[in-house]
Every structure is written in C-alpha cells, then in structure tokens.
Here is the input.
Amino acid sequence: MAASSGSVSALAMRRILEKHKVSDLLDATPPKKELDGVVELDSKMRPIDAAQVLWQHHILGAPVWNAEEGHYVGFFDMRDILSAVVASARALQQREGIDKKDDSREDIYNAIMVTNLEQGMQLKTLSYLAARNHFYSCSSKAKLSELCNLISKPGCHRIPIIDKPVEEGGRCQSIVSQSALVKYLSATIASENGALDQTLDEAKLHYRKEVISVRDNALAYEAFSLLDSHRLSGIAVV
Here is the structure.
C-alpha cells in the first residue's frame, strides 16, 4: 500500500520496515506444529495429487521444484484448483448442455461438477499451473521493506526465503505470507505510542474499497468463477 509521506501511520510503518529484517519476522513467527519444514511439490506430480498435499497440510500454496533442471517453476496455489474446477464445469456445460440457471437441476449440476474435479485437474500440468504464479524469493538478511516490495506485486501472496542462490544449492527454508507480515507489523508498530491512531483514509493508505460478493443462493460454479476471474482466495457471501 502506498502512502503519503505526511502520514503518521505510514511514517511509523516505513521506519519499522527499514529497521527490521526478514529474520526478525521469522524469529517472531512460530512454525506450524503440523509441518516439518517447508512443503515443496515435485513438478512431475499430477495437479490433483498436489492439491491433496495442500489439503493434508492445511496450506494455501507451495513452491514447485523441477528436480531435473534444478530450479523452482513457481507456486501451486489453491486458486489454481479453482481454475481447474471452473474449467471442468464449463466443459461439462458444453458437453451435457446443462443450464446453470435451471434451478430444477441445481443439485445435479453441483454434484456432477464436484465429481469432475479430478478430470479438470488433469487438463493442465502442475508446471503450467505453477508457472502462472511467479516465483519471487528473498533473503532472511533483507530488510522488511524489500520483502514488502516483492509481496506487493500483483498476484503475489507469499514469499519464499532463500539465503543462497538456487544455482548454488539454495533451497526454500521458510515462507512468509501476507498475513504473517501484517501480524508482525501490527504487533511491532503497536509499541510506538499513537502510531496507528489514524484511519486508513487519514493515513492516505490505498486499499480495495470494492468488495467482491456472491448471493447465498448462488451456484457453486458462480462463486468459483468469481474467485477465479478475480484471482481471489475468498469472497463475501451476502
């Protein structure tokens, strides 16, 4: 989020970002108990198998490693699973001639769409899906300001931490998510008296004012299509 240089809150955030390093955030973030190190996916895996790994570990995404070429392809994300579901549903509509607006067939349509998930996940390779999510990485020695510059890029929600170049054997040792960064900043800046006593508008921080939503009686296909088209991990249900 960009901000005016005259904003008290923005100045406080900028000071913290320049003062603290990625390693400070990592030290303050306890690892998930159910995870033993960073979860990585092999580029030869089937997308449906990669999706099951994400579900089993309760994570939203994981880096994809190409062992033959010795580099990271990108990130496989839960939103890629949605893309596969939507693609499968569209193919089903065209093949079966099912009208998603036909309420009398709503249950049948949703049930068939779910059972066709695996078919949809086979439409693209894991490498293809992961390459859509660019692999940005950062060193634990970097300033938080550098991390923010990366994680603020379009479509980027988490940053792998790698202290040595991949070509020299460097591998992902940790992953910093947007939520982990926000939590750390909130706890750290709070110690500065009055630093966050401004509203977002007063601080001149830019934020998304348009909330993407779906009606509570909408078809699963419609909700998934919105998530997919806007590349979101969640939407409001009204």
